Amino acid sequence: MKVAIDGPAGSGKSTIARMIAERLGFLYINSGSLYRAISFLALREGIDWRDIDKMISLVKKHHFDYLADGSVLVDEERLEEELRTPEVDAIVSQVSAIPQIRSEVNSIIRKISEGKDVVSEGRDITTVVFPDADVKLYLDASPNIRAERRYHERLEKQVPAKNEGERVASISIEEIRKNIEMRDKLDAQKPIGALKIAEDAIYLDTSDLTIEQVYDKVYKILRARIAHGR
Ligand code: DC
What we know:
The protein is 50% helix and 14% strand. By secondary structure, it is α/β, with parallel strands linked by helices. The strands form 2 sheets. It has a 5-stranded parallel β-sheet with strand order 2-6-1-7-8. A 3-stranded antiparallel β-sheet has the order 3-4-5, covered by helices on one side. The structure holds 2'-deoxycytidine-5'-monophosphate. 2'-deoxycytidine-5'-monophosphate binds at residues 9, 31-32, 35-36, 92-93, 96, 122-125, 183, 187, 193.
C-alpha cells in the first residue's frame, strides 16, 4: 500500500507521516530529507550546486536508503541533524529545483518503495512520484501557524546556528515566517515538481488542529481505506 502526503513546510506532514508509518508498520519516506542529503553532500564535497553534471555524478556515486527511524542512510553513514542546518537550508530549495536531480530522487524513492507498504511525504509525492498512490493527502496550514510550529520545533531541538554560541532560538517567529513564505514561493515556481494539490487528494487544513487531532483524522481515513480493500 502506498500512502502519499504533500504539503508546505510546517503543515505537519512529516510528524503525521512518521506517526502513521510507525502505527501501521509501514516504511516512512521523507523525500525532503533526500534533497537535504544531496545538498549536504555537495557542501561537504565542495561541489557548487549550480554545476549540474557534478551534482548528478554526486547522486550517482552514493547509495541512498532510509532507516526505520526515518533518517537517511548515505552509504554507511546515518544523516539526520546534519540535514537541518542553516547551510543546508540555504541551498536545498535550489538543489530541489534542478529537474535532473528531481528525476534521480524520484527513481531512488520508487526503487526503495518497490513491493513495500510506505508512507511517503514531500511536495510532489501525490502528483509525480506516486500518482497512483492508494491514499493521497494534502496537509495545509496558514503561514503564521506554520512559522509558530517551526519556531517551537527549533526551540526544542536547539539546532546549532552558523556562528558559535548563537542559537537558532534567537531567530524571531517573524523571520521564520518570511523564510517560509519565500520557500513557499520557490516551491510553487519550480518548473517540475511544484507543490500542487492533486485533484484526488484529501485536503486537510491543520491550522486549528493539534497534531493528535490531525493524526486521528488521518488514521481514520486510512483505516476506512484499508477496510474497503484499499
Ligand atoms: O520538507 P523539507 O523542508 O525538508 O524539504 C526540503 C526542500 O526540498 C524544500 O525546499 C522543498 C524541497 N522538496 C521538494 O522539492 N520536493 C519534495 N518532494 C520534497 C521536498
